[in-house]
Amino acid sequence: MTTSSPHTNPVTTEIIRNAFNAIAEDMNASLIRSAFTPIIYEGKDCAVGLLDENGDVLGQSLGLPLFLGNLSLCVQIIAEMKGWDYYEEGDVILLNDSYIAGTHLNDITVIMPIFREGRRIGFATSRAHWLDVGAKDAGSPTDAFEIYQEGMRWPPTKVYRCGEAQQDILNFMRANSRFGDALIGDLHAQIAAGRTGEKRMRGLIDRFGYDTVKAARDDIFTQSSALEREAIAAIPDGEYTAEGSLDSDGISDEPVPVRLTVRVAGETMEMDLTGSAEQTVGAVNCGFTQTVSALRVAFKLLVNPERPVDGGTFQALEVIAPEGSIFHAQEPAACSWYFSSLGLLIDMVVRALAPAMPERAAAAHYGDSMVTIFSGKDARNEDAFFVAVEANCGGWGAWDGEDGQDCLINNVNGSFRDYPIEVFEHRYPMRIAKYGIRKGSGGQGEFRGGNGSYREYHLDGDTSLSLWFERSVTRPWGLSGGEAGLGPKVEIVAPDGSVRDDLLKANAIALKAGSVVRVATGGGGGFGDPARRSADRLERDRADGFVS
């Protein structure tokens, strides 16, 4: 073991800081390259985190922001439930319980404690979306009204105990998924990511020594906390509010209200969701842990966004969500589509603080993952069953100085992406005949909102279709006089030419071969008075076909 002074210098601290993040990036690459299902290896619906022995963040990869703020909380909650001695060398712990991890049951958290010379030195953690966990419908049902319809639910469960595979548990998991082999394959991809983190973390301590790495960590956390408090202190004290609503919960047609109050006092900030809807019958409910994670994403958008997240981040932020609300759901609330309210909520934080932070505020983006789920039998592959789950990109909001971006994935999903057409058509029995920018969908303004996208699917066989499209009621709003962006749109054309365009949410609709499905996502809100848009930008709009 290398010996070293526990006292670090700025150069050593920066080397170790970057090493933490490099380890996390290597873990993420291992996960993506080892995964069995395209929602991970193509869509990148995953994230990893390297944590210290207390479960605080050391480094994290690019990935889904909504996951990254959550992995440390899961480690710490399990320790509160079972004690830190629950974590033993060689363990692999699996978790997807929506009321602990906060997300839907398809999001699987894998936690692996890292030991060196008998001492726990950290955790390698990951979360990834598993294609099917045995719900009543393939993928994720859009009409579930209790969690028991949404698939297998695992509290903290050791699938490896002290290095030994718990084969009976693995067999049970394999037997209860429509894609059991792929499920076990994706689990082992997450374990491979953890092994990568374990090896690299041990190597870092071998190089610098435990005391030096620990001292550098403490310096990093102290710096982050101080910079964050300084940034909050620059925001005028006060109470800032915003309101919005989801279109529906997928069961009733009633909007679901969301209310936010942000309180700034000195160097601290409080985000309070009191007044938001009570948990709904439909599956837009969210566990409190994930609500905290979403508000951390919003906080980080505005407060010291240039600095990576670590264990010193978010110490000055408090989150309040009443128990039994959609943001602090209790059993048996359904949670499959928990993220819809969170994308809206992140936009609302920016809207609330826009008067106090106008230089950082952008108009609302298109707001949700806009998911299609196709399932059925593939005649090209001996009628093998398939499920194709895909999110769709859309327009982001403009800000003071620049137009919004066209066709980016939504704010909760970060590096997640839709499938390349070639991959999609190779894997699934349908063709994507059109894919492009939905021109004119961004809100007008001195700076124009980004445009959404469109896709047109031609079905080669009988297929089941589920839809989850949001933000047609609370459309992506503009700021400072900018106009709202358009909401989403879906058209289903039957083989006889009849068209249905009244659905944004649907569960397992039976479609015949030859049907066509057209989906279009919304645009971002504009910023500033449209009459102030420059002649150069108007000319560019005309050249790009955004205006007539």
Protein described:
This protein is an alpha+beta fold. Helix content is 29%, strand content 23%. It is built from 12 helices and 20 strands. The protein has helices at 10-34, 38-41, 65-68, 71-82, 98-101, 167-175, 180-208, 210-233, 288-302, 339-353, 421-427, 535-544, and strands spanning 46-51, 57-60, 92-95, 107-116, 119-129, 157-161, 164-165, 238-246, 256-265, 268-272, 317-320, 371-378, 384-390, 430-438, 452-459, 463-468, 489-493, 499-500, 505-511, 516-520. It has a 7-stranded antiparallel β-sheet with strand order 2-1-5-4-3-6-7, sandwiched between helices. A 5-stranded antiparallel β-sheet has the order 14-15-20-17-18, covered by helices on one side. Helix 1 (10-34) runs antiparallel to helix 7 (180-208) and helix 1 crosses helix 8.
Class by alpha and beta content? alpha+beta
For the record, give the distance between the C-alpha atoms at the N and C termini, rounded to a whole number.
70 Å
> What does the largest sheet look like?
7 strands, antiparallel
Q: If helices are DSSP runs of H or I spanning 4 or more residues, what is the number of helices? A: 12
- The coarse silhouette is globular
